[in-house]
Amino acid sequence: MTETGVSPTIERQAWLAFAVLAGTFGIVMISVSVMNVAFDALADEFTDTSEATLSWVITGYTTMTAALLIPAGRLADTYGRRRIFTLGLIVYVVSSVLGGLGWSPVAVIIARVGQGAGAALVTPTSMTLILSTFPTTMRSTVIGIWGSVGAIAATGDGVMHARS
Q1: 133 and 17 in contact (C-beta within 8 Å)?
Q2: Least packed by Cβ within 10 Å: which of 26, 82, 153, 164?
Q3: Hey, where are the domains in the chain?
Q4: Is 84 exposed, middle or buried (0-12, 13-18, 19+ CB in 10 A)?
């Protein structure tokens, strides 16, 4: 047993689960603002599309995430946190691939809206899965680290943008 009263094997599994859950949260947080860096390249690619229309690539993600965040928590309570996390991850990855293919501005906008929906499903479920994985004595620590991962991911884009 360790200081936390958890066997070393279970503790390793908990930290591995934490790495996956917090890493996924970090990725969706990067997506909040990553298009700010890529926006000029997107405008150069789709020269026949107005910047106002292209701005939906940024706005669609954040709007969908905000709109679905609370309902996603309710879905997780109803259908299971792991199931909704997995669904969110699948939606996010499929939308990311479609957005990467980017054959038209509308396709990229729809893909970003899909990413936002996936992010909304992943965010609350990643936290609740972490909370259920660790003993109550460690909750403040793991949630602090989880939140830091998201904060660093969200600010990392600003650093990349400042350097470019």
Answers
A1: yes
A2: 164
A3: 8-163
A4: buried
Q: Whole-prediction pTM value?
A: 0.84
User: Rounded to whole angstroms, how far apart are CA atoms 136 and 150?
Assistant: 21
User: Which residue in 157, 135, 133, 159 sits closest to 19, CA to CA?
Assistant: 133
Residue range 8-163, CATH number: 1.20.1250.20
How many whole angstroms separate alpha carbon 9 and alpha carbon 25? 24
Picking from 60, 80, 62, the residue whose alpha carbon sits closest to that of residue 120 is: 62
Burial class (CB in 10 A: 0-12, 13-18, 19+), 123: buried
Which two tokens mark 53? 């229309």
Measure the CA–CA gap between 22 and 128, rounded to whole angstroms: 11
For 31-69, the pLDDT digits (tens) are 887 877 888 888 888 888 888 888 888 899 999 999 999
